[in-house]
Each structure stands twice: as structure tokens, then as C-alpha cells.
Amino acid sequence: MQILPILDDRFLKTHISKMSVSVLQITEKKDISNVLAMLSARFPWNEQFSHLKRVRAFKCDNVTLFQIIVTTEEQFNDECDDIISQLKNVGEIITVEVPSECPLTRTQFENCKNFWPTNFHENKYISKCLTGKVFDEVALQKILENFKKLMSLSCETNNVNAALALHKDNIVTYATSDYNYPLKHAVMCLIDAVAQKQLTQTSKNNDNEEIPYLLRGNDVFVIQEPCVMCSMALIHSRVKRLFFINKASDLNKLSCCPEDTAITSMKLHVGNKLNHRFEAWKITLNTKNISD
Fold first, then answer.
1. Is residue 269 part of a domain?
2. Single pTM value for the model
3. What is the CATH number of the domain that holds 251?
4. Containing domain of residue 75, as a range?
5. Given pLDDT bands bounded at 50, 70 and 90, which one contains residue 241?
6. 54 or 89: which leads in pLDDT
7. What are the DSSP calls for the chain, one per residue?
């Protein structure tokens, strides 16, 4: 069994875009503090450059050189000649390319170092996702068992899609697609079943026990990738994690869900303009997993 995280595209790219900046190249380390004092008034270090180190040292023909970022190439060309002449008295003005944004992964950081030093605060969990270290063998076995239950339910009901909700490894409820109603996809039926169950629990709750809002804190397992409608419903329901087997592009014509790849391509689950986001994992099962 293989398990693949569906991450924001920002974490998947290996190289970061670049921008051109004007730098002052000098040979004497003792001149750095004077240059920085000169630049701070005319070219303050703003948010645009917050991910960069302003000074870098490197060797060229066994000679250590120092480069100090002045400002963007465009802004530098618009400046009056007085500051330019002062800088040229200290060193040489050249144009170099630097990362235009902060690196988010170790790979991006290592690539950025090849042309300019940057700040980097590693997201340990994202690093585990990228290196396949989130789930241990016990957790992977539980995921496999849940999908076996789901596929068994799918076969028993002669339904190509089924969904399962778990809270702290305990099954909350199952659901399958209802082909008699075009909007009753497996995920929608699952959320409805959870809501009905919570409504019943609320009416019987004499101890004022807190009942979670819909799928808050729950993991959802589904055979087929949710469509846009189902994905938005999962967001509204505050689901914690989603696990699915088939991508929308793999769906056959019997499916209730249209082929719109809401998770794998549109990536609605990590939209930065939404008030909730959740993890999504694509599962690949082999014949041995299914037959065991």
C-alpha cells in the first residue's frame, strides 16, 4: 500500500522563482557596517526582502568577496545619482538574482542556497509528509483495514462509492451513494447520517456531554475522490483528514460524482481563502492488500 499526501502546490515545487536586485560587491569586510548604515536611510530592509540575508560572502579565485543587497533593480535604476556615486566609491554595483519568496521545504532551501542565503523555518510535519514518515506500520495497517471494510460495504450494496467516518479510531457511521437522487453522493449521505446521529445523541444527552460539530476531529475514508460539492461539505463539516483511493479522473460513468478532481487538482482542502482546511491522502492498494 502506498499513501501520498495531497499538499498545497507551494510545498511540491523544488525551485523558487527569482527576482533581480542590485547589489554592492566589496572586498573589505570592515566596510560592511558603513555600507549598511548608508543604505538603511535610503533603502530600508522591508517585508519584500524579509526572507533574505542582506549580506552574503563567497569566494572567487581564492578571494573572499562580500555582496550587499541595495534594493530591487527597478528601484535602483530610478534613484538619483548621489547615492549611486557614494556606493561606487566603496565597491562595484552589479545585478544578481535572488529568491523572490521564502523557501517552505528543505529542498527549496537547499536550492536557494546555491544563489543567495535565505531564512528558513522548517515545518516538521510537512517534512514528514514529503518523506513519508507521518504514519508508522500500525497506523498504516489501521488505514488498510478501514478501506477493506469500506470496499466490503461497497460490494454488499452494489455501490461504486462508500464513505466511512472515524473518531479516535472508533467508527461513527457508514454511508453509500444513493443513485435515486443526483446530489446524494456518498460523502453527502455520510454527513447527513452523522448529523442525524448527533441529533439523537443531543436529545438523550442528560450529562451535558459536549458533542462535536459534525465531522470535527473525524477522519473520513471514501473510495472515490470527492467532487466540489462534497469537498465543500467536508470543509463546512470541519473534517480533520480525508483518505481516498480513486482519483476523480479514474471514475467510471456509474459514479455519482463528476470528474472534477476537487482535491487532487483544484485542492479545495488547502484553499487559503477558506476558514477551514483539512489533510487529504491518496491511497494506492495493490492486489495483495485487497486479498489479505
1. yes
2. 0.85
3. 3.40.140.10
4. 18-100
5. very high
6. 54
7. -EEEE---HHHH-SS--EEEEEEEEES-GGGHHHHHHHHHHHS---GGGTTB-SEEEEEETTEEEEEEEEEEHHHHHHS-HHHHHHHHTTSEEEEEEEESS---SHHHHHHHTTTS-B-----HHHHHHHHT-SS-HHHHHHHHHHHHHHHHHHHHTT-S-EEEEEETTEEEEEEE--TTSTT--HHHHHHHHHHHHHHHHHHH--S------TTBTEEEEEEE---HHHHHHHHHTTBSEEEEEE-GGG--TT-SS-S--TTTTS-GGG-TTSS---EEEEEE--HHHHH-
